């Protein structure tokens, strides 16, 4: 299966939280992260939300207050991402083709201020696109639980199938790290 073709070590996130609203961003900023590359679908909003709600807007306002520079990074198309990004005033990369490198490179190039890779944190809900892509590009990554599995598209459901296989592999090969990150909770959704 496909999960045997992928380097399992590049599928282990640096951090894991139940959802983006549970993240202690103040602590991450104190650790030296100054820029965030944020996934949109099922990380900031569900697939059936066209624009950010109040909770998401409040979170993004808080990220700016803390001092983060934010770039939205999505595999979705321009018609989905552009209105979302414009409503927030953040730059966005659409059709990023995660886990491939070009979207991550374009995101770094979009930052107003050049950043070292160790100052950038990718935040997303998918192991096979967000985590694997960030790790392949040499970036740190925070894996969050998806906001809603019910609204996911067929291709995301396929990625979740592969993710479950990869999580079993990580549990077998690196059980301490698996437990430390609380990856078992990914099964309880």
Compact description:
The chain is of the alpha/beta class.
Question: Would you write up a description of this structure?
Answer:
By secondary structure, the protein is of the alpha/beta class. The protein has one domain: 3-Layer(aba) Sandwich (Rossmann fold). It is 41% helix and 13% strand. It is built from seven helices and six strands. The chain has helices spanning 25-30, 54-66, 78-88, 101-110, 127-136, 154-173, 175-181; strands at residues 15-17, 35-38, 69-73, 92-93, 120-124, 140-144. A six-stranded parallel beta sheet has the order 1-6-5-2-3-4, sandwiched between helices. β5, α5 and β6 (140-144) form a beta-alpha-beta unit. α6 (154-173) crosses α7 (175-181). It is globular.
């Amino acid at each position: 299966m496909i999960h045997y073709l992928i380097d399992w070590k590049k599928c282990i996130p640096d951090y894991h939280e139940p959802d983006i609203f549970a993240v202690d961003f103040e602590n991450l900023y104190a650790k030296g992260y100054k820029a965030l590359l944020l996934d949109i679908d099922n990380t900031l909003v569900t697939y059936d939300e066209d624009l950010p709600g109040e909770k998401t807007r409040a979170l993004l306002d808080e990220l700016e207050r803390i001092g983060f520079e934010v770039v939205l990074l999505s595999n979705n198309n321009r018609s989905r991402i552009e209105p979302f990004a414009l409503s927030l005033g953040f730059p966005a990369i659409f059709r990023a083709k995660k886990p491939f490198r070009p979207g991550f490179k374009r995101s770094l190039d979009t930052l107003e201020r050049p950043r070292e890779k160790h100052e950038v944190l990718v935040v997303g809900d998918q192991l096979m696109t967000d985590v694997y892509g960030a790790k392949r590009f040499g970036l740190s990554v925070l894996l969050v639980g998806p906001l809603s599995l019910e609204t996911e598209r067929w291709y995301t459901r396929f990625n979740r199938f592969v993710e479950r296989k990869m999580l079993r592999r990580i549990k077998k090969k690196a059980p301490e790290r698996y437990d430390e990150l609380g990856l078992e909770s990914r099964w309880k959704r």
